[in-house]
């Protein structure tokens, strides 16, 4: 096989590995942003639950104040009822007492509803706090994994780039220039296997005479369609299954 073809095949593997590590590093900000979004969502759920609890407590205080007012009125009317002298005054006080008692019952019912709501809110707040704690723990673990992956990718990239530089130095400059130009235009893939007369990446059939040249692996030949440099992998002869005579 042509020496440059062997080196280009090795170079393509290095470039593919480099691109994979670079892509992984480039994805880190989005991954970290996603983690922070999950944390913020969980924190908002806790804040919402606590805000609802605060509103419930404020409503109960208002009910307690209003209840105290009606209880005070009822007590006053009870004291006044002992001093009435006419039926008209008696009926008037009885009407006021009845109104106060109805208001007290209504406010006690409202208070009971708010207390039941408070129990539900307490459970919701506890669940939100538990969820936030779980999200924070998972986020911390994921950030540690990302940091480890970052360090590994940086280390791998340093070695891959060093290996690439050493390999590039051995290539014929014109062949390297062709490879890098095609690679830049073709999503990082500058070389392709030719198989059964077809470029295995762009899937375009090549002319028979071109495929014959490619099969020899003695020249640098480009695909007429995608311009990638072509190479041929000879089929491995099947081992004989017959037992020796």
Could you characterize the architecture of this molecule?
The chain is mainly alpha-helical and 245 residues long. It has helices at 3-26, 28-81, 87-168, 173-185, 208-216; strands at 191-195, 198-199, 221-222, 229-232. Mean pLDDT is 93; it is low at 240-245. The protein is rod-shaped and about 130 Å long. It has a 4-stranded mixed beta sheet.
Task: Write a concise keyword list for the protein shown above.
4 strands, 74% helix, mainly alpha, rod-shaped, 245 residues, 4-stranded mixed sheet
In short:
The protein is mostly helical. It is 74% helix and 5% strand.
Secondary structure: elements and pairs:
Elements: H1 3-26, H2 28-81, H3 87-168, H4 173-185, E1 191-195, E2 198-199, H5 208-216, E3 221-222, E4 229-232
Parallel strand pairs: 1-4
Antiparallel strand pairs: 1-2, 3-4
Order of helices and strands: HHHHEEHEE
What's the number of helices?
Answer: 5
Proportion of residues in extended strands: 5-15%
Rg, alpha carbons: 41 Å
Largest sheet: 4 strands, mixed
- Helix/strand class: mainly alpha
- How far apart, in Å, are the first and last alpha carbons? 36 Å
Sequence stretches where pLDDT stays below 50 over 5 or more residues: 240-245
Determine the fraction of residues in helical runs and give it as a percent range.
Answer: over 70%
